[in-house]
Amino acid sequence: MTFQQDLESRLSAAVASVIGESAATPVTAATDLRFGDYQSNAAMVLAKQRKTNPRALAQEIIDRVDLAGLATAEIAGPGFLNFRILPGAYAAAVTRLLGDAKLGVPDVGAGRTVVVDFSAPNVAKPMHVGHIRSTIIGDSLSRIARFLGFNVITDNHIGDWGTQFGMILYGWKNLLDNAAIVTDPIAELLRVYREVNSLIKADPTVLDACKLELVKLQAGDEQNTSIWHQCIEVSKQGLQKIYDRLDVTFDHWLGESFYNDRLPGLVEEFVARDIARVSDGATCIFASGKLPDEQDPFRVHKEDGWTDNPAIIRKADGGFLYATTDLATLEYRTDTWKADHIWYVVGVPQSLHFRQIFDAAERWGKHCDYRHVAFGSILGEDRKLMKTRSGDNVQLIDVLEEAVERAAKAIAEKNPEIPADEAAQIAETVGIGAVKFAELSQNRLTDYVFSWDRMLALQGDTAPYLQYSNVRIRSIFRKLETPFDVATASIVLGEEAEIHLARLIVRFAEVLPTVIDDHRPNLLANYLLELARAFHSFFEACPVLKADEPVRSSRLALCDLTSRVLSTGLGLLGIKVPERM
Ligand code: ARG
User: Fold this and answer.
1) Residue nearest atom 4 in ligand 1 by C-alpha distance
2) How many percent of the chain have pLDDT more than 90?
3) Can you tell me which residues the record assigns to a coiled coil (predicted)?
């Protein structure tokens, strides 16, 4: 049980004995440590409901609450309850964590399945920095959910079936460089795609030729199907290289094409069940009339009032759309995988699409906790959408390479004695860690400005700072003549800096579940920064190796735990820690 849960249950027992019935008594971490470690506004809320004096009620609760061995309590302002955890309780809690591989983190997800839909680039188009956000956030949320005990299924829902294949097929047949498609398939497919695009601009008949290729593919033409397969294969291999570098894995790669066979039947079912109807030849899902207009994703506001904004699931020419595939996809995930939650880590511009398919899914009876985990854009230092000097979208792989290069330079300057192959490995860990942390320490919904210097700084809110903090801790242990056995240590807390470090170590188990409440890895990232800062203050104020026993062992154990929380926490953000740097 965390301190927060312990306080809540003791408080609720006291409240029940004061007011004669049970009531909610939420406790949160204090916003300002001067007032204590935890706080509750339960007395104020209850007093308001019961029209009594809040301070008097708070006093009655404090008189009854049994906080023995745990905390002291105080009333503040209009009736806040403030709790201060006893140093002895912190010491006991930290001692328990010494032997706990999960660092006190509760299995809040046990028995529940969550499907995480992230990355999902479109084949034959490059993965750009926009995809970096989905890949990094999705991977981190998956790792965190797994650590919290959820059964996690990660699925890379790649766009492997779209109108772009008309152009790709035409280009493959007419423009392909057979050597380049082997050495750098993603770049070659992109080149072909771009070249066909400009051909179309110059000569519109090329577009007709492309459409013809697409129709042939959709009709199952043998040659086109085989080219399509090759195209998917080389693209997947190219993507896999990037994922390997990022240390991102997927349980499945069920792309859009996986659902092709299901689409006609799905549309029929929607019509038969009156969820969709034909309008101007297209099959559409309209507003159900059950929601107020402003909440209904199938209605939008235009100058002359509310108007229909249907989701089309079959075009008049018989073609299926993104929404159709997404409905088939969520059906598979809820029926076959028995998903309790599905998290779609996709940019803000698709929010209307997701509101529509979630609403349609509910009407269809596919109940599940669907979440669009949306995110904003990455801006260049000029605060405009990030572009290369030539005006193209920046490609993910280039970002990673530059990060690693810059990290390598910094390491060579700082630590020239590290052998070249180890230095290269550290540069990879630091550079990629820096890119990931810059992403994950932001509120995902805000547009963030990409800054090399800021993300790679050793002093600052960065991955290198956290990695370096961990390296410093590990170096303490390298200095020891006899190896230190944490299991035999017991924690004694005296100095304020020591108590604060213990407070933060214990808080890991409370912070982690809040990350998935609203899918915000930045809560974990910011917590880790706070922990590292607390460690540095502790290390300045409290001698470790020079202290006498039992303080020396206790402080060594605090160092060891801090390092475990840092490396576990960074690991949950998908960031590795080097041994030295
Ligand atoms: N391929 C899409 C894109 O790049 C993202 C797919 C997201 N997942 C989904 N189930 N719609 O925009």
Assistant:
1) 121
2) 82
3) none
